[in-house]
Model the fold of this input.
Amino acid sequence: MQEKPTINLGLEGIYFGESRIAMIDGINGRLYYCGYSIESLADNSTYEETCYLILHGRLPKGEELEKFSAMMKESRDIPQNILDLIKDMAKTAMPMDILRTAMSALPAYQKKQSGNPDEENFAESINIISKSTSIIAAIERIRKGLDYIKPDHSLGHAANFLYMLKGTAPDSKHARILDIMMILHAEHGSNASTFTAIAAASTLSDLYSAIVAGICALKGPLHGGADEASLSMLYAIGEPENTSTYIDDALSGKKRIMGFGHRIYKNYDPRARIIKKYLEELEGDADEKIRKLAKIEMEAEKIMIERLGKQKGIWPNVDFFSGPVYLSLGIPKEIFTPLFAASRSVGWCAHVIEYWKNNRLIRPLDYYSGEIDLEYKPISER
Ligand code: CMC
Done:
């Protein structure tokens, strides 16, 4: 038998390639997209500009951003066949499952643009990024028995999503906060979903297939699904004064507190810090229910940092404060994770395209620990 090799469960600590897209400094709790700190992008950029940065590796000049934003707007509307598919699935399926299936169906109704692979990848990326938010707005409205609202080309990406979701002109403060939420979720290195997208793409499969693979991996509660799971936990806690008992019971039962901990960050996730700031800003105008959720969060944050922060490096992550922020913007919890997927689609596209430039089939090993040379017995003798 082969000698047992060192096994890195969860591929922890393994480098599989080089990238110029995101740099995460987990020890100091810092994040950069193409060299720009997440704080400077959240303060100064827009989702459209950040998408350009992630796809091209540099900030756009004025004309370039105008052209890029126009292309994103032109790609917003979704084909009738996809709307029919959503209508059919909305009766029984959850939004994340509908998004996955709709994304998978999208290329069937999309004309190939140019034949030049670089241009094609770029056009497909824009199509994926733009249409994913339109698909989510359509899913949510159709689930509620409402009509699909066509995109408004006078609005930016985040504002248009709110308009397509609610049918009214969005409040500019809400639109800007959603824009920032989308910037914060746009990219995060080779996490589980990005790696899954790259692994699919490494077989020279196509971009849409890679994005569908990314959506599948993002769905779980250890990854993107933690935003919804974290809000469900706040509802389960119910009242701020129940928080410490809930956390102590969960920790003594070896349960995970959703929205805390990270494989890379052993410090405060910088995205969570920014989201917390916007939660505090929104809280004043929020209704009683949301204010109560925010109180539970502040209490849970304090208790978790005392119990696990310094000892184990378990701090709030991007999914902890997002729930009440999204609720304050009128975004229901069933579409939190789909919205995460839509925001992250740019990161997935950029990583896949970058990987294809120096493609190598991803094929790790597992150590076989079973038996060999067993005698095959006919079924009657087993
Ligand atoms: N609550 C309680 N204990 C935790 C948590 C948590 N959220 N996260 C880690 N721990 C403990 C864990 O039990 C273990 O303790 P011990 O050493 O006593 O066995 C220790 O911390 C190390 O945990 P680990 O499982 O080795 O850590 P990991 O790197 O595999 O886990 C994680 C990363 C995100 C899966 C985990 O922290 C977790 O399950 N968090 C809750 C789910 C969550 O919020 N996910 C979103 C992550 S950020 C956004 C994204 O990537 O999508």
